[in-house]
Design brief:
The protein is an alpha/beta fold. It has a single domain, classed as 3-Layer(aba) Sandwich (Rossmann fold), CATH 3.40.50. The protein is built from 14 helices and 7 strands. The strands form 2 sheets. A 5-stranded parallel β-sheet has the order 2-1-3-4-5. Helix 13 links the parallel strand 4 and strand 5. The longest helix is centred in the N-terminal third of the chain and has 31 residues. The relative contact order is 0.15.
Length: about 300
Amino acid sequence: MKRFLRNSIVLSVGIITLLYGLDFIYTNVYENSFPRNKTQHILNLEEGEKLDYVFLGSSRVENSIVSREIENITGKRTINLGTQGAKLDDINIFLRLLIEKNVKIEKLFIQVDYIFNHESSSDIVRSQALPYIKTNSVIKEYLKRVDSNYFKNYYLPFYRYAKNDYRLGFREFIASLVNKKSKIDFNDGFVPLFGVINKNDFGGSELPQSILKSNKSLKEIDSLCKMNKIDVIYFCAPFCSRLKTNDYLMKLKEKLPNFKDFSSSIPSDSLFQNCSHLNKNGAEVFSKLLIESLSL
């Protein structure tokens, strides 16, 4: 019996030591490797860096704003920090990280549409932030607020990597370890889509019939911009012609007086990959149209 207890204790101590070791190694690799997502890219920006035009939002920014096109027109350094699945909570944390890095922003563009109705965060952005839960105070507070597994992720060694293996597991760890660069040029941030919308993709494309009274994250974003003297423009990227709007964008305009509605600015559906996302040609047309419409 004593031998069994001794072996059990030795095994338990060995497993715990291994988990702490793996946690340390994974965290160290993610913190020191080339950025492979936009959260990492923001954390790797130079302190006090100047970015003239910064775009934040979901994939409807990532796939719609061609930074190089805007730079060619305006001569302003432009970066697309749109991230697939991002909601206003995620945009909030991106802005806080930029402010923490003392990044100088001339104009901030935030894409808002049906995400106004979501007071939640994206699983994608949450998982991207997890390696920094103990080393970055802004991320720590963000995860404490939005992550239902916060205490497990913070206190249990290696739990956050095992639980999020599909984004932080062995494959991504090895890619980071060997400094394999992402296919995305994060200094630009635009991710093009190809192909043309299929007529069968039009069905069921509509905006919500009701709108939230307010969105806490958007209020915080607005407050942060005022406190840090950041000129912010809220806008809605284009939708295809057959979208049923349900007057949602008119209701959104009432809540955001400086809201710019570009939802119907691209009439040709041949410029869409699906009803919510422009293809590469459409993104180039819209990027030019947006800058010219805002007289920037």
